[in-house]
Design a protein that fits this description.
The protein is built from 2 helices and 3 strands, in the order ββαβα. Strands 2-1-3 form a 3-stranded antiparallel sheet, covered by helices on one side. β1 and β2 form a beta hairpin. It has a domain at 9-68: Ubiquitin-like (UB roll) (Roll). The chain is an alpha+beta fold. The protein is flat.
Length: 101
């Protein structure tokens, strides 16, 4: 029997789930779920999104905590970096003895 005293699942916060696979280097967004708290979200994410033992790490984040840009903001948000030539690798000379460049 569960000790969780919460309302219907629709009242539980929404979480976004990110999983890093055994062959991957990055966490990838795999879906969303509702849970009463952070621990429950992590356990449910494990059960729902890594059933076949494919994950090695799970992140769960409350959707309300995520701040994201909108595709309509693409030009004003990213355009300012275009005029900063020092950010382009062609601006620097790399010495021949520097490895892995």
């Amino acid at each position: 029997m569960s000790d969780i005293k919460a309302g219907p699942m629709s009242e539980w916060p929404l979480y976004e789930v990110f999983v890093r696979s055994k062959r991957g280097l990055n966490h990838v967004h795999v879906g969303s779920l509702h849970a009463a708290d952070d621990r429950m979200a992590l356990l449910h994410a494990r059960d729902v999104y890594t059933r076949r033992n494919e994950g090695v790490s799970i992140w769960v984040v409350r959707s309300s905590a995520i701040v994201a840009s909108s595709p309509s903001e693409k030009d004003p948000l990213f355009a300012p970096s275009g005029d900063k030539v020092y950010r382009h690798p062609t601006f620097y000379e790399i010495a021949d003895n520097v490895p892995h460049m």
